[in-house]
Fold:
Amino acid sequence: MIIRKLFEFENAHIVRFCSSKRCKSSIHGHSYKVEVLLESRYLDNAGMVYDFGLLKTYIRQIIDSFDHAITLFNQDDQSYLQEMKKYSQRWIALPVNVSAENFCRVFFILIDALLKQTKMVNGEQGVNLQSIIVHETRTGYAQAFKDDAYSDILPKISLDDIEFSPAIKAEWNDIDFYNKLKNSHIFTNPKEI
Structure:
């Protein structure tokens, strides 16, 4: 069985090396929609794959980190990166070019790590991240699965290579959240939300 939860965020970027002249040479933004699809063959104590309310905690925090931010390709021109970080409090630096496809892969890796490190306390079993869909426009989206996120033929994405600005970290429930995620900390779902 598959469940999906839709999230939204506003974000600016440049997609270097793409065919569209405007996209590769000018900062521009999108009203993104992200669908998180979870799957399991089992249902929890309430008859659910995973309580939608639980998706509003750490998973929402991950996606909200990209809201009203600029996302940067860390291999871009260094002077450009320095200026963007200087004039924008909310920024994320990624080890891959900032496309909808790579957003899918980044979100998959972040959320997959979180789910694997989450102690579930309401009878959830076998809950896996099935895929991530990122709608960049009203008519265009990308979808990534586990094989895409951890591909041997696509540029590697590691948690260690994703950087969140201090302003983003300051808004998290726990400023040390990302270090805990990178260091295999076990997160326990709340019994009640």
Strands lie at 2-13, 28-39, 69-73, 91-94, 118-119, 128-135, 141-144, 163-164, 187-188. The domain at 2-188 is CATH 3.30.479.10 (Tetrahydropterin Synthase; Chain A).
